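lol so apparently i was supposed to do this last week
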Amino acid sequence: MALIVQKYGGTSVGSVERIQAVAQRVYKTVKAGNSLVVVVSAMGKTTDGLVKLAKEISPNPNRREMDMLLSTGEQVTIALLSMALQELGQPAISMTGAQVGIVTEAEHSRARILHIETTRLTRHINEGKVVVVAGFQGTSSTGEMEITTLGRGGSDTSAVAIAAALRANFCEIYTDVPGILTTDPRLVAEAQLMDAISCDEMLELASLGAKVLHPRAVEIARNYGVPLVVRSSWTDQPGTWVTSAKPQGRSLLNLEIARPVDNVEFDTDQAKVALLRVPDKPGVAARLFGEISRQKVDVDLIIQSIHEGNSNDIAFTVTTPILKRAEAVTAAIAPALRSQSNPKLDEAEVMVEHNIAKVSIAGAGMIGRPGVAAKMFATLAAADVNIQMISTSEVKVSCVVDAAECDRAVAALRTAFEIEAGSRAELLTPNSSPLTPNSSLLTPNSSPLTPHSPLPTPPVRGVALDLNQARLAIRQLPDRPGMAAKLFGLLAQHNISVDMIIQSQRCRVIDGVPRRDIAFTVSRIDGESAKEMLTQVAAELGWGEVVLDSAIAKVSIVGAGMLGQPGVAAKMFEALAQQQINIQMIATSEIKISCVVPQEQGVKALQAIHTAFGLAGSEKFVVPA
Ligand code: ADP
Ligand code: ASP
Ligand code: MG
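anyway here it is w/ adenosine-5'-diphosphate bound
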């Protein structure tokens, strides 16, 4: 009836009993008339154990040898599961990534899939066998054939890529939770299960720390329209569908690297309000955005840069028709936000900029590819466009620029990313966002697992916590076109992915040059090397100090429904203020708001925000050990 790809994660195949239970489920699915490819992870915590062994021998093991080592974990599981199936009388064959022909870049420990040979897979399927494939691994195509791995958690990506290559009816990800929940049930036991979530929302959640799905798996599902469901391997519950709109036909060649950007968008109906020099203490953002939402002002991007002395700058954008109201509310509240204790700070000032535009590149192919944003910044620099604000999400990078430069910026970006003029570039208004969820849900129509008709979407679907980030800041970068391009180009050359990027609003003239600070977050493992590299460059280029803070946590809310709904940001900031948690940085995109807070308060922040949005259910989740 159907061709299904199933993937079982580490806990689901953590023991002989679990492998036998998986074999039973596979057997039942075949008996119901389906053909099956099964992708498996290493048993239990095997991969962690192998990493630990390597670290005992070398503090910085060679990446090729690491791939050689880690890929063995999955090889154990495929053989055992095949045997278990054969014991049940079900013909089965195990295959490594190389045997299947999962061809990847020659990039050890983080290879992207280029293409998947389907000949041998299809032959075995047609012979009535279940093909059991080792997840997380592939083989490089260039030079001598090498074993590569896709990055931790990468078996999800193997499974969805195989489903795309085989044009399978759907892909099921079996794990130790009943599906995708509003947050990690290990941190909040009252997290609630969702029936369905859009690929865009899931991409954000996965990238912001929800490890239930590998973000690249969601990216492939979105790009190729693979119907995807996350379910528990312990029960028969229907799980959570990850829905996508029907994609345009895409070649299966260069599967994970083709066309990272498929749209250029712009919005000229924007204005910016900035509040400079507000005290750096809990509750300030909550008061400001609380008042703004009471006045029904809908804000778009919000940015709070790193503090300078004891004060912060907060900036936000609104659509032009409501600028006057936004400015009035901000001016009215500004005096109340000034620090009482420090008269020097009594200079908080409201700054308004009318003629700005937002230009964005959009597409689900930017994850872990720092070169894409760098190329956008370089393109704008070459067109002599100065970037005033940057906002990044997994599916979009937006830059606020002078309105007079918008046409030039859009034309340059269309050329650089090969987007045909007039074809798909679109004017983005809050109500015409391409991110609206539930538009033509893509789920298998033949399957009994089809989700219920979509319910009205709440503004916030999920909350995520990332404790593996570090913050870097560069002080006093000259404020002229090309600076972001230079900085993020350098990071891209070193393969360092950047997440939140924030330029300060405050501009200071030093040695006759206007300068601003710029701050961004990176993976904690990249923090030290990025700092070292940038410190060297800073000295050569006359930039200021490079500052690294590794003790941060990033807590984020995600939901396509927050678009055009005033008050969502205010509620998040208020929840943090009530816990006396100081917000160090704020960055938003259309469907997410992220705050950097002190690391030791990360879990408390997550719990408070989850409760504030009413996401907690009455049942408690117990995750199997
Ligand atoms: P597997 O080994 O099956 O791939 P993972 O450990 O990679 O499983 O992912 C499942 C885990 O993801 C869950 O046990 C849960 O702790 C965690 N998780 C984090 N955020 C979420 C979320 N929003 N919904 C469900 N699980 C989540
Ligand atoms: N075994 C690998 C890991 O633990 C891949 C995976 O399970 O997805 O990261
Ligand atoms: Mg996983």
